[in-house]
Structure formats: structure tokens, C-alpha cells
């Protein structure tokens, strides 16, 4: 059976990205699940191979079709954008920020062209990206712009539990104003479409409550009464299999047990805390509602341990495996 081809970006070279990518390519389970084409810099990749002591041969190619996808081979599209004489681990660098952006840009191009089935990204550093003059705050914004996607959906998958986010990088005060009936309806509709694209068509989506005990019918707040419950009622009338508001102190536990196929978290930390408490290393982000599939680790560049060969690659390994799992639902 033909394995899916996953484009893997190296991340910020000054961080742990190169090391966890190298460990991922060397992982037996990843080799069995997917063919991988790494997009990065040969110098940075070579340092990472030495740092982790991996038994890998770096094979530089111009195109994924030219790769040698045998075990023990790291196929690399070398963008040659790191001056190793100036390179330093653990430092915010405009050079590394620019390089990290160019890896993403190339990976998106390859996947959009159908030369890869999905893309899996290693961590970038927002300060380095800004220092490089790249006018995006992070991965999601880059993918939105380069794939021409309005408001991509973020979904976490952790041990089979899936979490979407109604709001993300806003303050708690602003978040409350964004919880509207119209927004919830729009997100549930789009989240349902995103799940179907991934092949998930059975089960019930839960909408989390905001206030303690989902407000207790107005005793602790009116968001559930005025916005969330009416949205869920209208969605059910339209035929959507959705429940809510379900108290946030139980909804993620119930989803982890399999009662719900997904949860619409109302704000960033509500869903992040649940997923990362369940399994921090295996919390994988999927950017949905784009023409291509993208998975990612949900941790940072860890500059403090970069280059030491001690960074755990569990998240990167799971990210590539998840990309391989869902890639057959995307055509190239």
C-alpha cells in the first residue's frame, strides 16, 4: 500500500525543531506510516543529526519525486538559507526567522501543487519571525494567507479527543463579547464540514459552557441562556448532531470517554488546559478548512535546550503520524 507523502518543515533552526524532526524521520513508526520530505537547511539538519546521534543519511533533492524513501534516509529540500558562520542555537535571529518562514512557504507550495499529501510543521519563534520582517504573527496566519483561507479552524486531537476553538488569541474580556449565537452557529457548521473532510461523520459535537455549571439558568451569567442554548437549538432544528451547553468541568472528560466526537471550546485556555492535561506531548494541532491538511506540534522552540540533543520528539512524531492518518481524505 502506498504511503502518504508528508512535507515536514524544520522550524526555527535555532530551536529544537531540527532535532525533533531528525528524531521523527529516524522513528520506525513514522517510517512505516509515511514517506517524509523535509524542508530546511542542510547545515542545520546536519548539526541536528550529530546532536541526537541519529543514524541517518541526508539526501538533498530538488523535488519530492526525487527522494529515496528507504529507511535511514532523511530526504531534504535544502533552501540554503542559513549562514552557519553566523548561526547560534538558542538565540532570536532574523536569519532564522526568515528561514523558518521560507520553509513553511515552500512546504505550502509543494502541498498546494499536489507534490505532498499534507504538511507537518515544527515550531517557529514569533520574535524571530518579527525580526525578519515577516508580517504574520504565527503559523495559522501564514497558512491562511498563503492558501487564501478565511479564518482557518484550529482543532486539537489528543488520544482521540478533538477540540475546536470558538475564540483563540484574545483576552478573556474580549472573548465574552465574541460568544454570540451567530458565531456559534457558523463555527459548528464549519467544524462539522471539517470533521467530514477528515472522514469523521458519526457522533455528536458538544458546545462547552462558559460559566460555572453552564450558568445555572442565569444564576451565574446569561451567556448560556441568551447565546449558546439558542444557537444549539437552531442547529439541531437544521439537522446538526450537537449538544450544549455542556458544563466545561465535565465536557472534556466525556469527550475523552467517547461520548462526543468533538468539543467546541469557547476560548483558548479552556480547551488547551483540557487537552494538555490529558496528554501534553500528544496534543497535536490540525489547521482545518484549508485546501490542504496541516498538522503541528503545540509547543515552542525551547531555545534553552536547543542543540543539546535532549528534546523529546513525541509531539513531532505524533504530528506526522496524524498527518498520515488523515492524508488519504485529501486528494492531490
Account of the protein in words:
The protein has 332 residues and is an alpha/beta fold. The protein has two domains: 5-151 and 290-329, 3-Layer(aba) Sandwich (Isopropylmalate Dehydrogenase); 154-276, 3-Layer(aba) Sandwich (Isopropylmalate Dehydrogenase). The protein is 40% helix and 17% strand. It contains twelve helices and twelve strands. The protein has helices at 17-26, 28-33, 42-52, 94-112, 126-131, 139-146, 172-178, 181-197, 223-237, 248-256, 268-279, 314-326; strands spanning 5-9, 35-40, 57-60, 73-78, 118-121, 153-158, 161-165, 205-208, 242-246, 262-265, 284-288, 294-297. Strands 3-4-2-1-5-12-11-6-7-10-8-9 form a twelve-stranded mixed sheet, sandwiched between helices. Strand 6 (153-158) and strand 7 form a beta hairpin. Helix 8 crosses helix 9 (223-237). It starts with a strand and ends in a 6-residue tail after the last helix.
CATH topological fold name of the largest domain: Isopropylmalate Dehydrogenase
Named CATH architecture of the largest domain: 3-Layer(aba) Sandwich
Mean pLDDT: 95
Could you estimate the helical fraction of the residues in percent? 40-55%
Query: What is the rounded distance between the termini?
Result: 17 Å
CA radius of gyration is 20 Å
The largest pleated sheet is described as: 12 strands, mixed
Shape: elongated
Total number of beta strands = 12
Q: What is the level 1 CATH name of the largest domain?
A: Alpha Beta
Amino acid at each position: 500500500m502506498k504511503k502518504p507523502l508528508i512535507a515536514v518543515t524544520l522550524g526555527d533552526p535555532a530551536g529544537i525543531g531540527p532535532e525533533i524532526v531528525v528524531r521523527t524521520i529516524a522513528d520506525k513508526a513514522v517510517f512505516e506510516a509515511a514517506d517524509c520530505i523535509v524542508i530546511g537547511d542542510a547545515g542545520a539538519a546536519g548539526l541536528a543529526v550529530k546532536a541526537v546521534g541519529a543514524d541517518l543519511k541526508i539526501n538533498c533533492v530538488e523535488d519530492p519525486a526525487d527522494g529515496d524513501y528507504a529507511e535511514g534516509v532523511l530526504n531534504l529540500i535544502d533552501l540554503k538559507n542559513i549562514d552557519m558562520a553566523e548561526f547560534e542555537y538558542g538565540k532570536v535571529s532574523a536569519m532564522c526567522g526568515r528561514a523558518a518562514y521560507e520553509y513553511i512557504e515552500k512546504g505550502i507550495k509543494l502541498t498546494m501543487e499536489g507534490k505532498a499529501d499534507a504538511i507537518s510543521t515544527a515550531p517557529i519563534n514569533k520574535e524571530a519571525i518579527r525580526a525578519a520582517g515577516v508580517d504574520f504573527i504565527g503559523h495559522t496566519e501564514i497558512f491562511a494567507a498563503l492558501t487564501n483561507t478565511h479564518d482557518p479552524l484550529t482543532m486539537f486531537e489528543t488520544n482521540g479527543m478533538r477540540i475546536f476553538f470558538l475564540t483563540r488569541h484574545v483576552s478573556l474580556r474580549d472573548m465574552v463579547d465574541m460568544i454570540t449565537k451567530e458565531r456559534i452557529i457558523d463555527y459548528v457548521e464549519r467544524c462539522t464540514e471539517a470533521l467530514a473532510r477528515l472522514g469523521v461523520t458519526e457522533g455528536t459535537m458538544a458546545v462547552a459552557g462558559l460559566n460555572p455549571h453552564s450558568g445555572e439558568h442565569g444564576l451565574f451569567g446569561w451567556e448560556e441562556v441568551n447565546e449558546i442554548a439558542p444557537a444549539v437549538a437552531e442547529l439541531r432544528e437544521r439537522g446538526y448532531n450537537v449538544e450544549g451547553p455542556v458544563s466545561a468541568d465535565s465536557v472534556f472528560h466525556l469527550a475523552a470517554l467517547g461520548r462526543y466526537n468533538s468539543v467546541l471550546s469557547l476560548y483558548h485556555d479552556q480547551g488547551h488546559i483540557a487537552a494538555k492535561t490529558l496528554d501534553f506531548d500528544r496534543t497535536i494541532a490540525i489547521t482545518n478548512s484549508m485546501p490542504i491538511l496541516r498538522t503541528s506540534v503545540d509547543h515552542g522552540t525551547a531555545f534553552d535546550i536547543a542543540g543539546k540533543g535532549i528534546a523529546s520528539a513525541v509531539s513531532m512524531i505524533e504530528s506526522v503520524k496524524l498527518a498520515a492518518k488523515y492524508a488519504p481524505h485529501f486528494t492531490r
